[in-house]
Amino acid sequence: MKVAIIGAGSLGQSIAKGLVTTNALTTLYLTKRNISSIKGFEEFDKVELTSDNALAVKNADILIFAVQPRHFEAILKDLKPLLNKNHVIISVITGFAISRIEDIVGKDRFVVRAMPNTAASVGQSMTCISVNDMAKAKVELAKTIFNCMGRSMVIPEEQLQAATVICASGIAFWMRLIRATTQGAIQLGFEAHEAHELAMQTCFGAATLLKESGKHPEEEIDRVTTPSGCTIEGLNEMEHQGLSSSLIKGINASFEKINQIKTK
Ligand SMILES: NC(=O)C1=CN([C@@H]2O[C@H](COP(=O)(O)OP(=O)(O)OC[C@H]3O[C@@H](n4cnc5c(N)ncnc54)[C@H](O)[C@@H]3O)[C@@H](O)[C@H]2O)C=CC1
Ligand SMILES: O=C(O)[C@@H]1CCC=N1
After folding, report:
1. pTM, full prediction
2. Ligand 1 center–CA 73 separation, angstroms
3. Is 30 exposed, middle or buried, given 0-12, 13-18 or 19+ CB atoms closer than 10 A?
């Protein structure tokens, strides 16, 4: 695979970190207007850094666009003359519909819209993928790419905005929950670094329990809650204060906002 990431900013670099150790990769082009901040990637033999998008497009088969939404249209229009029928065009750009990409490159091109998250950099992204009609033949390839940096799920494009809230913004939501748990632990007497480790590893353990057992969260909750014990006391107080409700409302607010964001 020869891959180019056009726009190696925050998300583009997370994807690059997830991809760089993949054996299937022969070359990874990283483009950015000013490449001085990504020099660290030079330590990888397979990585080529350039500010020349055209060079990357000419030399790669798989193009991952990770620029800001407002820049995407102009960049794609510029590169259009260089695109050939074998290129797989992958956009990770929020809110930019496949139909808008097809309007620029044509319906006869392989177009994939994907939404990874920043945990791609540590091989733990949850990436949702949608494809145009042409790229139905490239679904396995798209999954292979994103499975290199975590797990992936193919979903209808109509659900991609919701997936962005749950999985991409979701990283921030979970961070805030971990942070709040840390604050609670400090109040109970732990040093900040200890509190952070306790919160993080407990969160990791909870997710791993569900992943490995396939159980519903309530089943695992039942195993922890001693009758009249401290867990149910804490859980009930959290619910009286609206824990589940505030999370659900936050997710809905985020979804309303993402549907208002104009990408032009
Ligand atoms: N899935 C996720 O977790 C997230 C997704 N996003 C989406 O990912 C996309 C990228 O977001 P970020 O990485 O946060 O943005 P960013 O601003 O960090 O990265 C964009 C990069 O594109 C580069 N760039 C701009 N014009 C260029 C050009 N003509 N040629 C080559 N490179 C160019 C910029 O120098 C910058 O490094 C956005 O569309 C955003 O909506 C953003 C944050 C999180
Ligand atoms: O906050 C945002 O709007 C973008 C989309 C998902 C993550 N970051």
Report:
1. 0.94
2. 13
3. buried
